[in-house]
Queue: 3 jobs
Job 1
Amino acid sequence: MEEMKVETVNSAEKVNSSFLEEVSKKSGENLSLCYQCLKCTAGCPTAPNMDIRPNNIIRMIQMGMKKEVLGSGAIWFCVYCQTCGTRCPNEIHIGVLMDALREMAMEEGIPAKEKNIHLFHEAFIQSVRRGGRAHEVTMLMDYMLRSRDLMKGSLLPGVKLFLKGKFPLLPSFIKGRDEIKRIFERCTKEKS
Amino acid sequence: MRWPMRMLPQAKSRDCLQNINFKNLPSPGGRGERGGGKPESPPPEPSPIKGEGNYGLIMRKLGVFICHCGVNIAGTVDVKSVAEKVGKIEDVAHSTDYIYMCSEPGQQIIREAIREKGLDGIVVACCSPSMHENTFRKAVKSQGMNPYLCEIANIREQCSWVHQKEKEEATQKAEEIIKATLGKVRKNEMLEAIAVAINRRVLVVGGGIAGITASLDLAEGGYEVILLERETALGGHMAQLSRTFPDLDPAFGGLLSKALEVAQHPNIHLYCFSELEDVKGYVGNFELVIRNKATSVDKRKCTGCGQCILSCPVEFVSEFERGMGMRKAIDTLYASSVPNKPVIHRDHCQYFIDGTCHRCEEVCPEKAIDFRQEDERISEKVGAIVVATGYELYPKEQLGEYGYGEIPDVIDGLAFERMLSPNGPTKGKITRPSDGKVPKEMVFIQCVASRDPDRYMPYCSRICCMYTAKHAKIYKEQVPDGQPYIFYMDIRSDCKGYEEFLQKTVEEKGLLYLRGRVSRVFQDDGRVRVLGVDTLTGKMVEVAADMVVLATAIVPSNGVKDLAAKLRATVDRHGFLTEAHIKLYPVESSTKGIYLAGCGQSPKDISDTVSQASATASKIQALLSTDQLLQDPLIAFVDEGICSGCGICVEICPYEAREMDPHRGISIVHSALCQGCGACIASCPNNACELRNGSAGQVLRMVDTFIS
């Protein structure tokens, strides 16, 4: 068995209750309410692949384990399907929480444990920025170029989707592209 | 094969014995007539059935009713074949079976059979008599049959349930049990319940919130109450509390108004600083001796001005303040206590140590100090007794594990309550006992000595989860920059508003609940280090705390075992008083007339204690609502012609129901005291004692059925 590390929670930076406050404020979720029923983890489709399960993420935030949480792969694995938030008896939306944690990790300059996931997110955002909605083919090409990951394993389903007409080759842009542009501008401005 | 050979002559001799008995005591009916001279034997009831009195000699008409109990009996025992076989017995006039005899249609079958066939004795083969004997006796009584001519043959607990895999044998056994019971019924007497006059006053032992509530309820109902309190004032542990969960109401104010109500109630006689010395008697007629300890203060003269307290030079550690405050040798239990009259503690008073100090006597404007006062013994009579003796926290001497008793900044929940109380030693301020500083890192540990069957107590103390949450909440209110940590195993918040209280506390205050037991608490560099684990993250945790509060287990208060022995009530292995039935008779003790309320029975919070105390009070009001008490007549009686007056039965009787009649030189039975246990019958060398409807003849007849 792996030897347990002795954690000392005796001073402000060790307990780091400020981390709980910070995350709660950023995400708008009341994380103190969690009583560890594990319903979020039980329903999460990506939890089996996560290094830290969603319920443990909340617990670790309560315990002030900032480094471990922001450095985890789990926060990048969340696909925001909202199963957890819909089911949570205490109305904690873990999807929203995970978003906030990803942002915090980026702000802190903590490299994502799953580096390609980060690139995938960027490709997605770029695609939305361009056309107002995601266009799968260009987005995937963008991602492949960024990551140099040719996604060999996922090609077959891609071809099938293409044959069924689910992957239009040319992107279709929405009408309000100017508004999208303004949204992006405003977000960037607010952030800086 | 040698054993049966050796048993044989013995069996024969018992047979002879049976004959002798019957020679001397011709018939049960005859016995009843002869018993007319004995004050406690009931007169035989005129029977509507033909052939009354001499049942042993004439052919009877018996009925057998076999219950299926759903599949409980019928799934194992072939009830139809048993009913058929039993129906062939000569004097069985009616034999039938039904799915649920105890149901209304089932009882109707019995009633109709009695009416139509003119039955004069019945056997219901069903579950244990403790379940439905009364049901069926009532049913037969409604048809004019004497209820004691109805007997239960237990073919469920003692047959079908224990022989589920041996159906044939079970069927045979059920038949034998029924036949044996028929043998008993044939010799049953017609009996009548014994009427006993009752005293309509009540003794309540313990002046905590349980005793106060029960007393007030009874007094309001018009019954006279004697309330006994060991301490010098009312209140019990509730007087020590700061605020109550889940409403955060001040505990003291609410308690005080109730205590004052008790003190002023015309129906309540309050004896503080008193103990129950002796109890004799039985339900409806208890005789008490109360020892009112000498207070050395004449309470009729004392006005409660408190000058004596101010003048007293002797101080010692106050138990009420859980060792965190001092008290004087002459003092009240707490400020503005009820009654608010000081008491001299003679172990500490200088006058009683060397006779040098007279200050209180000198300053008292009313000349109320009386050093020569002696303990007073008061005799009282009551009809029922409430035991509301409350709890104590697990003794710290036996709890070295958490540094309790060694590290000054490790205290228990009640000590913290005193600290939070505005009238406590710190006037409600949270400070470290060691240096008076405000603790910034606070650790609360739940389940200390509870839920630890190996070393401490196996049970859950029930109040700790909630009061710890309350403590942490109040701590956070008072020390907003402090960090409370709570070590817990589970959170149990099972009453109205509790879970909501807990969740709200957690939400508002950001307390850190750590799920896991603490392994070690030790002192290091002026702080208390607490080693534990958070099982939710799997990390070991070490907290350098300023102060630690232990939620220690609730145990019965001191002296309950002695009191229970005096009352002939039973306690469980932990010393909690046992109820007659955990679900159906939760406020009655196993001894008639003794009732329970509060933590003396099991750990419970104030809401539950008050509910139970009120339940107890209403049960007693029902008991005392009549002038007479009807008791089961299935008790011992003496054949005066045989009794030699040896007195063995008097010594052996556990209920003090046997006594020598000095004029006649024989032993008599106090019918109201006798519980029909049979100890005297077994011990009587002359077979002069017998049990009504359970005579040696009847029992041997039953045994005969099984062995023949």
Note: Chain A touches chain B at residues 4-10, 15, 17, 20-21, 30, 32-33, 35-36, 56, 59-60, 62-63, 65, 90 (CB under 8 Å).
Job 2
Amino acid sequence: MATVETRALRKEFTGHTAVDGVDLAIQEGEFLVLLGPSGCGKTTLLRMIAGLETQTSGDILIGGRLVNDLPPRARKIAMVFQSYALYPHLSVAKNIAFPLKAQGAPRASIAGEVERAAKMFGIERLLQRKPRQLSGGERQRVALARAMVRHPDVFLLDEPLSNLDAKLRNLARDELKQFQRRLGTTTIYVTHDQVEAMGLGDRIAVMNGGKVRQLGRPQEVYDEPADTFVAGFLGSPPMNLVPMEGVLVGFRPEQLLPPAAAAREDAGATVPMRFAVERVEHLGAGRLLYGTLPDYAPNEKIIVSLAYTVHSSIEAGHSYDFRVHLSNLKFFDPATGVRVPARPLPARRSA
Amino acid sequence: MTAPALARPRIAERAAGVTDSAPWLGRLMLAPAVVYIALVVGVPFLMAIGYSFSTVTIGTSTPRFVGLENFRSALEDTAFLKALGNTAIFSLVSQTLVIVLASILAIALQRKFRGKWFVRLLILLPWVAPISLGSIGWLWIFDPVYSVINWTLRHVGIFGPDTWPIWLGQPNLAMASIIGVHVWRTMPLATVISLGGLSSIPQDIHDAAEVDGAGFFRHLFVITLPLVLPILLVAVLFGLVFSITDMIVVYVLTRGGPFDSTQVLASLAFFKSIDGGDLSGGAAVALFLLPVLAVCAVLLLRLARRAEVV
């Protein structure tokens, strides 16, 4: 176990900056998720921490020790790759034993350690197989077993679930979190999937354009986005951003509600907003309503998400009086996208 | 619709037919290669098999079938036995050297460094340069009077005033020399094949080995070489078959001498049948290693398939 810290970390490839001055401090035993769209620099950042990529400038500290010039093998880290990167010519047992042998672990102890790791991930019966004889889920477990077998200080995981099918992914996510809790190993996890990030992370670092746009607990990042990028990247569908007189007003699709549903929630004052519904999608677990706010921004499409527990009858082509809690409105500077303090809503166009 | 209106598109369909049908297009495109190989390799090959069982010489018009007589007499010929041994030494030593050196070169060429394109060019040069030109260069390098090797080594001080080896004139040195030239000549192909094999290993595998703590030698011997082995075997196969069947280096540099010390089966077959006129005897010598080559090819291909991964 160890802390991981990056200080003003930069990586430039010819012609573009992949990571642009990242400062992060990851606590001991923490599960930190690096979340962002592809090309945002999250994998490059992870590879620099691993030592597979050399930073252009800045420092990396693992367990308080400066590791800038240390090769990957000296950093006491283990990594799980998106492709799993199992050694295709070695059996599962030899794959798991590889880091131990490379470390020079005593021969006698290796078999026992391999057994223990295999048992932990339920792959004892696969030990003699070759990677090509395994399913995707089994490969992923072997990769995890190979990573944890030598008790690293830090786990680095690069989209380890993205090659699994959707059903297996939920299961694997749950298991991964449990293993991490049990081992208590500091973990840095890269993903572009916000559901994984929300579900797994103790904290999430949302990245874009090589910079960390926001760092915080999942709920914090979701509820209080620092800028329009974070507001738009998290949530499905993303936050509605409505331009109103020099400011962008944001609210989540599930926060604009029919009056009956809004009233049931206890917190604070609500603001009425007339919502012109153009289309209704029935999604089983709820409804998505597409429409506009004719009183504020008649040309801006917004989406409202109603849970199946909201029974109000809504039809396309009609307008309804919806309400949103005042505390749910977030305000952003339209030029920079940065969050600004709450302010009163502008007057409605037609009262 | 009327009949004439239907007829027109049908003609267009037929015109497009040959190139649209995958099986026929395939046959069409393979045909030149098949015809070429049949005429230039297949026919002479069958003729040689026919000759080896008969008494054809340059000038005979009535060959007689003699069964395995040509092979039996070859086995009693000391020149043949010597050539057989030389062929074994020549191919095994040269290909061992080639595979080791080509692997090292390929691994070095995978790294990024300044002037890499120039090194690549230098390495490929022996392969693209005409072999007769290259060999003539080597003739000069090994020249008994003007040998640049001797001249350089003497000026550097490694050779004393009394040391002046005659590279192509002393039996052991002559063998070493033709092996050296053959290695120089066949290494580029092996290097290119190994490079292909190396670049087929995903970068993730190398990264994983790095993170897992493997040092240079463990990485090389436990991960890289086993993964590239199937493709290295293909390079070995090519190299062996090429070394056993080729005679140009021997022909240009030593003509098999001194005292048959560099005579290989291919060159012996040539001297016997073309220079000596004994077409049957030459054919028998040339075909002698055919079963060995065939077994060698089947074995290596099978090994390659078994070692194949992913």
Note: Chain A has two domains: 4-223, 241-340.
Job 3
Amino acid sequence: MSRFDAVIAAAGVGISQVVTVVLGGPLLMGTMRKVQSRLQGRIGPPIHQPLLEIRKLFTKERIRPEEATWIFPAGPVILVAGAIVIAVISPLATTAPALGRSADFFAVVFLLLLGTVGLGLAALDTGTAFGGMGASRSMTIGALAEPALLVAILALAIPVHTSNLPVLVRSGLLHPALLASPPRLLALGAFIVVVLAETGRLPVDNPSTHLELTMIHEAMVLEYAGPDLALVTLGESMRLVLLLGLLVNLFAPWGIATRPGATSLAVGLVVFGAKVTLAGGAVAVYEVFTAKLRLFRLPELLAGGFVLAVLATATALVIQ
Amino acid sequence: MSDATLVVVAAAGLSAAAMGAVAPARVRVRAAALFTWAACGAAIVASLAVVSSGRPVALHTSRILPLTGVTFVLDPLGAVFVIATAAVAVAATIYWIGYASQGLSTRTAAAILPLFVTSMLLVPAAASVATFLWLWELMALTSMLLVLVDHRHSAHARSAAQWYGLMTHVGAAAILLALVMLATHAGGQSFAAIRAHAGHLSPLVRNIAFVLALVGFGSKAGMVPFHVWLPKAHPEAPSPASALMSGAMVNLGIYGIIRVADGLMGGGPSWWWLTVTALGIVSALFGALHAVTSTDLKRLLAYSTADNMGLVLIGVGASGLFAASHHLALASLAMVAALLLIVNHAAFKGSLFLAAGSVQVATGTRDLDRLGGLLRRMPVSGTIFLVGALAISGLPPLNGFVGEWLLFQSLLHGLPASNLAVDVAVPAAVSALALTGGLTAAAFVKAMGIGFLGRPRSPEAADATEVPPAMQLGAGLLAGACVVLGLAPMLVIPALTRATAVILPGVGRSLRGGVQLELTNAHGVVAPALLALSLALGVGVVVAGRRLLRRQIEVRRAEVWGCGRRLQTPRMQYTATSFAEPLQRVFDDVLRPDQDVEVSHRVESRYFVDSVAYRSTSEDALERSIYRPAVSGINWWGRQARLVQNGSVHRYLAFGLVTLVVILLVIT
């Protein structure tokens, strides 16, 4: 295969992953809402409703707070752009994503943080109490989730001696015993806590709240309207797909494409969609039966995640 | 290669000081700055030659002036520090030209600032105990005087200078003891003699020398618990001076630790490095926590310096630990990470301090709770601060990211270790790295968001205007360095590898690559330039997509949502205090904030509240629990001494007589 073909193939893989995440994010949101509605005895909106909402929002007028600077519209753009970069470099449908050699887990964590910081700054740019409240709470949760996340990554990386994401995913395929090993299972617990916190799901944050004082994420984006709001919604749903996707691929990598070629990529994309839908459905079911935690009980939850991650690292070191 | 450049550095630096002292007021600052640039330029030329050839440059003044014994040897390790110092100094002096109307333009100040820069440029080249200590002391004294520049207007400046003077001299005493001890045992005061004798030292001497050096240099680097002067002196010093102190001077504390422990004594047992790592972890966490809760912009930056130096110490400690367990390739990687963190810190902290100084010039305050909306009013300074804030938070594609990634990689590949202590220390260091990363991001979202975004919280902030171009240029140069170092870290990594080879000779390079940065001895790749390119592409796709779906570009400005209430006032915004409140509450036990709620009632009835005053100060808990008792103990000792010294001549004569009798008795 020539160099040119390789570039085309990598671009194809990257674009197909990005398209999957961009379209899959809103669809996943719709699916989760559907599952929750059904469990609550309602019919619920159709699964593609979020896609329709985003399309409608894109055609609406752009409105901005009086005193806001360019940071306000830049926040959502950075959020979505960061998510697109993660979608390109992460092993979602295939273990050989574009730029896979430099797809370091550490880089992904800081790309996620870039989106969080972008939205936090944009929220403070509105000059309202709610923007500040949301930014403050979201940065607090983000800061406290960080140790659990990085130490869990450390636990995963110790047995394979690298934090390169494709290698981590491939190691699970090559050595299935690794998946059931105590470090991976403990790290899984830590990851679940982190994913719930980073994506603003219950019990950390209630994505469907309408009371300003209890909001975290919704308070940050309260001032957005039209295309900017569409980007925020899109970005958040993409983050959910990406984090759930990394979670399932790290802990249940079966079905991911390991060989080059359009067919295996297509199979990989379908399997990826199915796995993420299952994981999202599980989160939705869990949310139906859970209440939101008080803000000041959250550090305990996140500390619990950190402890799991530390235990994962300790067992990884003992097993070695 | 000639040694003449070092003479040029010293000569240009001294001429700059002389210019500052004698030139007429109109051209004083410019003349001093010009000669300072010459000194910095010569220093950079000499250092670049050293790092590119790997051969040190030596200068013994006895060859020029007989009977003087000043010895300089600039090796690649020192050269890296010289380049970082010179870069910050050039930016700070450009800034100084614009800042001069705000102060720092008196004869004394204009003479001292170049002296301070020159001493910092020469400290890493000093190669004998006397030369080193002399320059170290010059650096300490000049920086202390710079803290004192504003003493007429601010009582805080006097107290800050006292704290700084005390801490730096206790540190200098410890360094003096350590170096003199080594020199005595070696039988010569040149660093070469000490190094040659290092193998023959007894473990006791080595350990004592190491602990003394760690305390002495650690206090300069702002290592907890010797950090108390940082949050006092950095805010009070005029901004060009605080940028120099925080961007360049604290680095030399780290340099001292590396030079003495690794360079002069050739490394040590693992407990040395465990101590360094542990102190690094404590500094990083303590600094980051205080940075989150500080409401004074420059105090926040000062605490964040303690935090960053903590991360550097983690790298230095990890490097020592790996070297002690004979993993030399890893040790080299960790040291490169530590040096890269230092270079990065010089760039972003320099630009942040200069931008904070611009805020202080434009608004007259550093209190975040009185700022806001400055990005609209000061677009250039605001953008510079934004770049610095994103870089220090470790966000790609700026320079902080690469440094933290390298540190994480060196820690990750150190596991599993054969040594239980390392197995415990490394995950602890990773946790500290992660928590500091998150807290730093929160602290700088606060600094940027509360200080520069939103609506102005005071009339001063509302009337702020952009600062003179020289100040923008000075701060902007360092912000540009953050971007360049972030996109192309390979520009400096070969130099850092050469510097590492000074203390770990014979270890190959630990990193290779151009666009992609790749570990040579382990599996780890990161491509900051490609990440930046993909981010830019992502932004392009998003903007194009938005344009495609909606052709209208004009934006309507509207009032914000106030729960149905009209007329939002800036007072309703979150302040820095309220932003940090959740984190302050979570880390209550460490921060021990002082909170005061005062409710005053109407005279007519107790049931109607007239006003509520809330005050929360988070004083340094370590200052309260360690330094306050120490200070009051010293005061008590002083009062006891005063009982004896009551001014009566008769009593003093009696003392003399008693002493004489006692001595005579003892002799017989």
Note: Residues 277-507+570-586 of chain B form one domain.
